[in-house]
Model the fold of this input.
Amino acid sequence: PRVAVIVVAAGSGTRLGADAPKAFVGIDAHTILRHALRGVFAAPQAQVVVVTPADRVGDATTEAHEAAGDRGDLVSVVAGGATRQASVAAGLSAVWPDVEIVLVHDAARALTPPEVFARVIDAVAAGSDAVIPVLPVVDTLKRIDADTVVEPVDRSVLAAAQTPQGFRRAVLDDAYRDAAADHTDDAALLQAAGTVVRTVPGDERAFKITTPADLDRARGLVSPIPP
Ligand code: C5P
Done:
């Protein structure tokens, strides 16, 4: 296919405080990674590259093939790196030559609905080089200096960035080849390289499981994976 989804799942999950790497923590009977992959395989067809800790490549391969069903030919699994950016770079190196659109998705956004993938793919296919799903910021925001408020920040000009983030493959390859600094998402890397980044509506269900409270929220929202 001309689309690939890189699912980054190589984080340690320190802030979650579990005894396994985050993607391998259970939401219900199934892991964060397994739920994330359900969403990926319900989205428009794509090569699926899963990036995991080096000692979890076997487990991730099993889960990816379960999620893929009879589309196991679409699955690649590679070991990640010390930072998210290094993990994305590892995933990019496994993307097939004929792929033109690459999505990068956090496994930790395990309950992301398939429609978000479709919106991002459509926007790149329609001509944007870089597209991210965003949500309005709901909290009142302050700029602070230690324990003192410096000034309020106008939230109407801000948005919260989610994944999957989608890119024209050639633009993403170029940005990664020339990457100097480390960035917390791919849109920041591309923006630093001068690419215009567009937005599409995100989805509240695409929240990132980071803390124990996020995991509780996911447990309350999840629907079971059929046997
Ligand atoms: O740590 P954080 O939740 O921001 O990580 C976002 C995503 O990036 C997670 O899905 C995590 O597994 C992934 N990641 C990675 N390799 C790293 C660090 C994070 O694949 N070294």
Q: What stands out?
A: The longest helix spans residues 57-68. The CA atoms of residues 89 and 176 lie 7 Å apart. The domain at 3-221 is CATH 3.90.550.10 (Spore Coat Polysaccharide Biosynthesis Protein SpsA; Chain A). The radius of gyration is 17 Å.
